[in-house]
Amino acid sequence: MSATAIRARLRALTGAVAVGVTLVMAVQGTAHASVSSTPDKTVGLSGPAIFDLTVLDSGRIIVGGSFTKIGSYPRSNVGAILPTGKADPTFAPSTNGEVRAVAASDDGSRVFIGGTFTEVNGEPRHNLAAVDAVTGALIDTWRADTTGTVPTVKSLDVQGNRLYVGGKFAGIDGATKQKLAAVDVTTGNLVAWNTWINGNVNEVRVSPDGATVWVGGSFTRIRGLDRDYFGGIDAATGLPTSFVRAPSGGYVITVAVNADGSRVYATTENNTIFAYQPTVSDAPIWERKLGGNTHAMAISPTEIYVGGHFGGATPYLASLDTATGVPTSWDPKATGLKGGTWSLVIKDDSLHAGGQFTHFDGVQQRLYARFAGTPTP
């Protein structure tokens, strides 16, 4: 996004009135062009929802959720979409429960899935598994089952040879390790990482340099130190960083980190998005309240695309200026089931969305959508 003209003050004021934003520090945004508000024509899915997705370097999109078909191909909660937008006829793993999280190894050879299942491709796997990225075949040598009372894997993120796992569980890979763990990408063995969290982890996101693991959820302490619902953890020591957020807004739903790691965003149960610059201050740069919870965020140099079950002028999908939190004019006019949008990923020249939407501006596009533009993070 090469435009550099300063956004007019009038637009900032009218945007704040329309959606409701609290600016903690007055910072003007930068003019830019959003991705197209009309999604590409791509395959639709049958079922309630896509909960997460990842885009491989090849352009293939791996989706996980609760669904039964991608196009005409039967698929049980996990599948793939080709760069052309058509269903991938080859990638066909299956689970007997929802897939809530999807991630890929750095080399793109394997895909990790997490959720609330006990079988993958008919073989025992409890809430976490690795499959071949091309065929979907279960990787037999990789196993890191989770245990507990109704255990659930809610979030996955890969950094180098570590797969970070967040959720609601009491044990993983045969060891007592609650809520958050690191697992070896190649072997599936638990990585020795001395950290501890006293509540569920809803999202785990690693800084681009791999040094800090950002987590959000319903916890209040990390390694015995007060960290209400959101915090950074040293990837080497497992100790929380010095960043201490004020416990405003309730538990954290999702977390995002920008491309250089300088800013971190968190959304909370009271429908608010908070933007932080942790090395500068514990106080938010800005905060914005929407008409419903935000489940997903994707960050470009000038915009933060947000998805959730909020309503208002731009339901389920919206775009905010990264510097100010002021809404842009981008509006794909999404409609569908109440859950709205659950996952957003920027990859190269497109924004990918997954959720429970069914139409955009009256045109059917079920559960997955791709918006072309220039949003490279």
Q: Which descriptors apply to this entry?
A:
five-stranded antiparallel β-sheet; globular; disordered N terminus
Label the structural class: mainly beta
Q: What does the largest sheet look like?
A: 5 strands, antiparallel
Overall geometry comes to: globular
Strand runs, count? 34
Number of helices: 1
Strand order across the largest sheet: 1-27-26-25-24
What proportion of the residues form beta strands (DSSP E)? 35-45%
Mean pLDDT: 91
Distance linking N and C termini: 10 Å
Radius of gyration: 20 Å
* Low confidence ranges: 1-31
Percent range of helical residues: under 10%
What is the structure about, briefly put?
With 377 residues, the protein is mainly β.
